[in-house]
Queue: 2 jobs
Job 1
Amino acid sequence: MKPPSSESTAWIASKPPLLRFLDRCLADFSAETGGNVADYIPELGKADPAHFGISLATLDGHVYEVGDTRIPFTIQSMSKPFVFALALDTLGAGRVEGAIGVEPSGDPFNSIRLNADNHPFNPMVNAGAIACSGLIHEAKGDGAYEYIRQALSRFAGRELEIDEAVYASESVSGDRNRAIGYLLRTNAVLKDNVASVLEVYFRQCSVLVTARDIAIMAATLANRGVNPVTGEQVMTPYAISRTLSVMTSSGMYDYAGEWIYRVGIPAKSGVGGGILAALPARLGLGSYSPKLDKHGNSVRGIKVCEALSSHYDLHMLNRSDDARHSIIADYNIGKNPSRRVRRPHEQNILAAHHRDVRVMELVGTLTFSKVDYVSRELAAKPRPQFVIFDLRRVAAMTRAGARLLAEEFRELELHRVTVILSGIRRSSADWKMIREWTGGISNLRDFYLLDAAIEWAEDQVVYRHGGAIDFHEVTELSEQPLLAGLTPEELAGLNALGTLRSYRPGEKIVAAGEPAASLFFLMSGAVHVTLPDGIRLATLTAGMAFREMALLESHRSADVLTDRAATALEVPLSEYQHFREAHPRAGEKIMRNLAQLLADRLIVANTKVDVLTAS
Ligand code: DON
């Protein structure tokens, strides 16, 4: 093997800019030595204050790591959002929301104070978190901690374990939390034995994580509950969105207002030194550095979040979305017909009614605003009979976008417009989502290929205007555009040289790569011309020629297959040469006709390119 050149070595060493940014944060904030390691739980006091790790997980499942991202530490209060989400999904929103409030308390995490209804202010302060552990205990009894551990593990994408020493230390020193537990019990928020519930709470706080785990857990929150590394839907989107809501208002305790004002990313801290930040639809961040400020938040972790938010302008309330980029092409079938080669009477009908079929090719993520924009653009021009929404470049759909799209289909049904979708598979998640709201509507069709969708709509237009497409019709050679202008004698001469052949549906008439030895004139039925990779170049019906390019070159790159039973006149090229010699004028007319057909095809191809490249 050749050793890599110095140039390629340099390329391998290249770093994504986001990784370089995290490197800089690690270097810059390592100099920050303020704060104190928590020691109210004696075991926590043993943490090494020099440890510093930052990890960022993207929603496509990439995990950046700088510094001490594999050092285990206890999750502490960062367990609270996950156990709240678990309680919502396990006991139901009604039960959980009836027991625990969602208002910020403005108090420190361990405040012994309930709201005016004698319920915890929110699930992020200890009172609310202990109430959540109590709810899980109600549902799972002695299995409550194990149930929580398994849920936390699904968020992290690996089996998490407990730090028994921290658990024992916290249990010994946890009287303040016991006081909160008794307060909750006397107010009937806790129904079970206080000691058992506190054991669950202390254990869940003592689960060991790394900065990497926290980043993945945060990314799962940012990703509507789907772990971006394992792909598992860990919790329902409802539970996740409500969890992020309380993280936004109360995740940083009596620093929460300032935090959301300055940083604008839902977050949660733990006295073990961890900070978890989840920016919806963007990223999850986990940092570990044990020295805490007076609110109990990691000093360096806060700096990292502030830097990330300000450097990349990630404040979640500082967003915009320009819906006008959602339509990449918008046209009718006048200049952009299907690849079906039409006979003159069909062409005339389609030319007169080309505005009946409107095609909108959409791109990107279909959001609420984008679908709204599309519906207004559609309404801004005269009503078509058919509208094709091509979704092959649509990367994703939000629920709001899918719902608005379904409502648009209903509106179009009211106006008797048929909707045709292309570029979306029925097995896809997006299709299933749209179908949630399209029950009972009858104006919806789908074809995976845009060309097939356009062809179908064209057929409907032809039918509606009296041009029935009769696939059983038998045509004469005189109707062939390639033979236009030939005299009856010339046509008879050509006919005499050919052999009439019959083909079964699905039969391959000629294969790609074969030398082109004959011309074919389709007399009845339909065939299609297809590249070996399945792309359909054209559909031909009776009256059309194929392999006509054999007049110019000998090898062809496409297959020709019958769609339905077909008959064709096969004229071997060798015979055609004799015909040309005997009828030079006819030979010249055929070449002129071929040039005209190619020019027409080129116009169509150029128009398609123009439509897609127009800004
Ligand atoms: O309740 C406690 O004391 C701890 N086990 C958790 C507290 C905590 O992490 C507060 N957050 N910054």
Job 2
Amino acid sequence: MDEEIARHIKKGIDLRRHIAITQREHPQATGEFSQLLGQITLAAKIVSREINRAGLGDILGKTDEENVYGERQARLDLYANAVFTRALIHNGGICILGSEEESDPIQVRKPELRGKYAVTIDPLDGSSNIDYNVSVGTIFGIYRRQTEGGPQTKASLKDLLQPGRDLVAAGYVVYGSSTMLVYTAGDRVFGFTLDSSIGEFLLSYPNIRIPSPGGYLSVNESYFKNWSPPVREAVKEIRDRDDYSSRYIGSMVADFHRNLLSGGIFLYPPEPEVPGKRSGKLRLLYEAAPMAMIASQAGGRASNGKKDILDVEPDNLHDRTPFYSGNREDVEFVENKIKSWED
Ligand code: AFP
């Protein structure tokens, strides 16, 4: 980042001003990217407000609807999906949206509203925790449209089926004890905290770097018996290190966020003999790829056990992937364990 621009990025500035300053590095920018981030933050504020008063309204609990993975959707899943979809489709500078809650992508139908970005979103990750007042989150990834023909031409699936390496920006919102938005546009990772008294996200972390070594081991150990031998061995060894402690919330955004700030490794390994979990649980496009971009920009790494998540080419919108992310050394340690068993 240009030093003159970096000087203006100070703690406390609001997100809109921050975007305006960072966009100075791109004099050719049309404003669509700023508009898109603006719509994401607007939707995040609306969802945050609803989550904060969740116990008061009739919005907790499950619906009778199932998503494409056969999981029963929580009311707040549907609410968050509707809020983000509306904000992005009508005014977001995008041409197509892939949502974890929708089986098919959503097209921007009117040519005059079509922008040059394709967005993936997990509107409410960790929603099975919502009834217990546990942190949940939203994850988003922003790609450049690949379909030729300009706004007159409809977008296509290939605009969404891109490897994480092609992400223009990625981020998440964690609805926790405070609401935070963390994002990267490929140069540093920024963290903003929502000041609800003024309704603005203010810069609280100007340059997040994953501390290393040490930190938290974060994995659902109740699946220990289902993992492959190298993964079991790696987890046991990390658990025994003196500078590691265990924490697992079961809400990826919150687990990832803690480890981004404190170091360590988050794992969701495959369970080779368990139907539906042979590639783990997490979704490549909606969860793994955006988080991999953030981990990598913060000096860490995310892997599927064999290669960097950013290099994995998606075949389908709802592909799942094993996921190991955090300190570069810890992720490489797991990769090497897996490799040593294959050799
Ligand atoms: P839900 O959105 O159904 O709560 O799933 C959340 C999630 O995809 C991810 O946020 C967690 O890391 C992971 O599932 C937790 O899964 P386990 O309950 O199997 O540990």
